[in-house]
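In this section we walk through a basic example: taking a raw amino acid sequence and producing a predicted 3D structure, encoded as discrete structure tokens. The instruction is simple. Fold the sequence below.
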Amino acid sequence: MLRALHLAEETSTRSMFKKISRADTVRCVVTLCAVKLIGALFTGCGTSRSTDQISPHEPRPFRYEVITHRALDSRQGIATGVFEQASLSYPAIPVDSKYTHVLNFMVSPFLPPLHEPIASQGPLILYSDQNEVLVFSPMDHFFVSLIWFDSGAIHYGLQGMVREVPKGFTHRFLLVEGTGVAATLEYWGDLLLADRGRSRTDRYADVGLSYLGYWTDNGAAYYYATEPGMNADETLCAVKADAVERGIPYRYMQIDSWWYYKEPGPLPIIPSLTGGLLSWKPMPDVFPQGLASFRERIDLPLIAHNKWFAQTTPYREHYEFVDGNGLCVPTGRGVYDEFVAQARSWGIVTYEQDWLVTQYLGTPWLLESVDHADTWMTNLHGAVADGGLTMQLCMASAGHLMDTLDRPAVTTVRTSVDYQAGISKESFWPMFHTVSLLAWAVGVLPFKDTFRSAEPYGEQEALISILSAGMVGPSDKIGRAAVEILGRTCRSDGLLLKPDRPAAPIDRMFQPHARPFIVQTASEHAGVGSWIYLAAFTLARCHPERRVLDELFARITYDGRDLRTMFVWPDVIEDWHVDLGQDLGIEGPRVLYDWKAATACVVSGTFELPRAEHLYEYSYVILAPIAWNGLALIGETDKFVTVADRRFTRIDMYEDAICTTLEGVPGESVTVTAFDTRSATLLPPSVTVIGRDRVARTCVSR
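The resulting token sequence is shown next.
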């Protein structure tokens, strides 16, 4: 909890609300008062800003304020009837005119980023040409919060569908100031997590996050489709058999909406266009022997999808629901408890709740009260958590994502629109990486969605997936999966070899540029250094290989919106330079390993990335630290993440050698590579085999 050390009060006539600390001992003795918590101190609420650097961990160049509003009396009949027109507004916060850039997240499925001022649930990100950044968001009551930027000021309050505010209603907001979009947003998340006494979700928190798995959602080979003459049960059993035969170590399967009872859709000729949930039970034509039998035969745990409730669902005979726009929502948790009990008996380990923002925006009961949406998610999460499952959110809004601060069973969230093979990657990759910033900030791992490794850009899809530090979920047809590509993401037992954090756009991606789309992440090894993984993707608006179909897909997917409002999208790519200091915050030289060319050299200051001329092509380099002995460990170069902590458990430096302790599967062969800066050459790699104790020790020497 962010606590107060001192209280200062002043009267205000601008609002019926007062701003106070969460601390129980703090009270305002005036009828209307306004107090700001700046860092860990209360001050009077003028327009002044704190100049103190406050951090919950260590000194860093960030400042923050907590603003708390409390209703002195109840208010009824305040709804405007329009979500984006506030039912109640708090005093605006003027900001410096240097903040000329804006980044919001739309209140729509997968919370797409938008570089235009709109009313949203937050966070609102403002930044200058020099990457000075402000982040403003609610700290609680995320579903009813509304934030917008207009006329040089941050405006905020309650979304326009809220009908009444009870006496004593308390609403907190957080304002963070820093440098760099990614760094400031992460610090904003640090504060929110510290307020809850939470840490970020572990990268290996559940089966889906830990291992390679097979997916059947939209865009997959077997999404509402099967092999000829087979049902879904037989098809997926054949997928498992093919994987075993070809050495693909799938460790779970995801089953999407095709397996349970739903209302028929408007177009019977398109099977995937179905209505809402009728009964969350397997249909006999899909799993003739039942779901538990299927799970036993494939010998894999399951991740299972669910959608919205149809208004005609038989569950209404046993549980209370409220109607929405062509759907209904349960007001209690009983139906979710039933789902979880069934899930456990079927071998389901993760529950995937889809269509979240559709349910939220389509149900007046969820919108009109300050706590109904929170109650809805509390009921759902409570059932999942008490049942020992984890949960993935899909088609979430930013409100749902920030709400996960109070939902530790939520481990992953989809942060990109539904995958489609071989088309319009500019509609996916930049949005995914931008929204992933927000997901990681609040402590949840992003999920890129499934992909087909055999598609023309399957290697890029696999790379993006593993660099996300989240799930890796291929979905190829039987016999089509690219075994070598998938093998680059994991050990031979399917354990994913991840970086320490999700890849994020470098700050230059948020300013006008003529560069490829560049993202970075890292592996840290205490006492040794940091390995930077830098991927650059050729996304140019006027690239000659870009098709009308790519443009049409983008327009349809985002309701006609120009993608240039969603990310900085250069017409052409002319600049392949990266500066170690300015772009990556690295001091001193590094060894650059070109992963695709398998070459290395020493770089310092500004260097040029290997060029990738074709549309959607990529460049990928590893920047390795140079040790005191002049050697640089490159790592396991047949994997995307070459120095993953689930492979390299210890790294020791000697005068003429690097020795590493590795973990893995008994009998697994591991090749380790290093570079000698004194001779400017890659050293002969060391090949070792993991022993029976699941470890091995190997050295690379001059």
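Looking at the output, two observations stand out. The CA atoms of residues 13 and 32 lie 7 Å apart. The first helix runs from residue 181 to 196. In the next section we compare this with other chains.
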